[in-house]
TrEMBL record:
<dbReference type="InterPro" id="IPR006638">
    <property type="entry name" value="Elp3/MiaA/NifB-like_rSAM"/>
</dbReference>
<dbReference type="GO" id="GO:0005737">
    <property type="term" value="C:cytoplasm"/>
</dbReference>
<dbReference type="Pfam" id="PF04055">
    <property type="entry name" value="Radical_SAM"/>
</dbReference>
<dbReference type="InterPro" id="IPR058240">
    <property type="entry name" value="rSAM_sf"/>
</dbReference>
<dbReference type="GO" id="GO:0051539">
    <property type="term" value="F:4 iron, 4 sulfur cluster binding"/>
</dbReference>
<feature type="domain" description="Radical SAM core">
    <location>
        <begin position="42"/>
        <end position="284"/>
    </location>
</feature>
<dbReference type="InterPro" id="IPR007197">
    <property type="entry name" value="rSAM"/>
</dbReference>
<dbReference type="InterPro" id="IPR034505">
    <property type="entry name" value="Coproporphyrinogen-III_oxidase"/>
</dbReference>
<dbReference type="InterPro" id="IPR004559">
    <property type="entry name" value="HemW-like"/>
</dbReference>
<dbReference type="GO" id="GO:0006779">
    <property type="term" value="P:porphyrin-containing compound biosynthetic process"/>
</dbReference>
<dbReference type="GO" id="GO:0004109">
    <property type="term" value="F:coproporphyrinogen oxidase activity"/>
</dbReference>
<protein>
    <recommendedName>
        <fullName>Radical S-adenosyl methionine domain-containing protein 1, mitochondrial</fullName>
    </recommendedName>
</protein>
<comment type="function">
    <text>May be a heme chaperone, appears to bind heme. Homologous bacterial proteins do not have oxygen-independent coproporphyrinogen-III oxidase activity. Binds 1 [4Fe-4S] cluster. The cluster is coordinated with 3 cysteines and an exchangeable S-adenosyl-L-methionine.</text>
</comment>
<comment type="similarity">
    <text>Belongs to the anaerobic coproporphyrinogen-III oxidase family. HemW subfamily.</text>
</comment>
<dbReference type="InterPro" id="IPR023404">
    <property type="entry name" value="rSAM_horseshoe"/>
</dbReference>
Amino acid sequence: MLKSTFTPILWALTPKPKYPKHPPHAVTNTSTAHVRHNASVTTPPLPSSAYVHLPFCRKRCHYCDFPILALGSFSPHDDDPRVSNYVHFLCREITATKVSPNPNAPLQTVFFGGGTPSLVPPRLVSLVLDTLRIKFGVSQDAEISMEMDPGTFDADKMREMVLLGVNRVSLGVQAFQEKLLKACGRAHGLREVHEAISVVKSCGVENWSVDLIASLPHQTEDMWEESLRLTIQAQPTHVSVYDLQIEQGTKFGRLYTPGEFPLPSEVQSADFYKMASRMLCDANYNHYEISSYSKSGYECKHNSTYWKNMPFYGFGLGSASFVGGVRFSRPKKLNEYMNYVQNLENGLVNGSVSADDRTHAKDMAMDVVMLSLRTATGLDLKHFQETFGRSIVLSLLKAYKPYVESGHVVGLDEERKTIRIDDLSNSLLDKANTKGRLAYIRLSDPEGFLLSNELIAIAFGVIDSWEDRPPYKEIA
């Protein structure tokens, strides 16, 4: 059953095993590394994307376990010293980050996530963007995204953000029913939802997304259909559909057990997912990733960095980076994050990659499979074979054969046309028959995506039993 809660902050992807949620007291290296999209694995490129965590919210939603700072509903956010102090530490972190000089590689995407970044005054957003431009450069046509919640901005603030360069908005609607919004602990109501949609459209923001959550307490099929229908009527260029995750330590985690009333059953949750896929695809949205739909040409460029396993910078409380083949996160508690920034400035944090940090091929292969199978593109078998060898590809295809027969795994040729796979091994190895040769495998939509956790876990089992190869920089 699909449980997809994506956050670039902690890489909390759901297939087993999850990416670890790192201890808050240290910058911790994790077990993944970048795989170049060519025949050999060499030193990875510098990141061209940056995630910036602005953790402020009016209050914590009942399902949220992200690192946030609740300011209160009546706080004067424009002059709140907690906001300005944090942003200044954030800019100090960006400035102190060690990078290899590469003036020809400015940032192509910047993503302000949270929290509720739209609570932050435009002048402080401008300060962060100026700091990024000075440190890395930001391309003139860069995608600059901001998560914005209804009720936290008006037309004047939206226009200011646009003037600063924000050209993509991710609007945290979550539901179109007043009682569901209240049940989630959202700080906004339905009136603010419609006002926010109107403001975004009136301010000329062409590239904008609506975020929805399925499988909420007391949510019915009719409610979910209404939320999807109203979303389609609003005509965003992108829609993100997430299945509620019950996290320990949250209010929902204390109140509810997954699959038990008032939460929908797994069968009902699957029906919600199928309904979203059907209605959004019928409305000409492309289902390009498990939780993501877009009009043609409006796929989120920043999130595609994650799906392609490309490097990225992360800045701010609890954020994660993927640089030099190593993932590492910042502390999740504010005081410890501030200490981290001071240590970074004093040279006490080692940002380089040592021999012990380098990721082994087994971990790299798990990353590539997990991220690739979340997308409509799927796993590129040619590049996977060139990087990791033929034997692991054949073992993976053998394990997936029952799911090919059941229609959950689909084979594609090099022109991305669906092909019949009678003999997986021969189909892959028949280099003479290039036109009909198996080049990709992907999960079917929606049935395969619904089994993504199970199917990715199967791949992990295959990779885990594979004899490990040398670490990252030693693979040729």
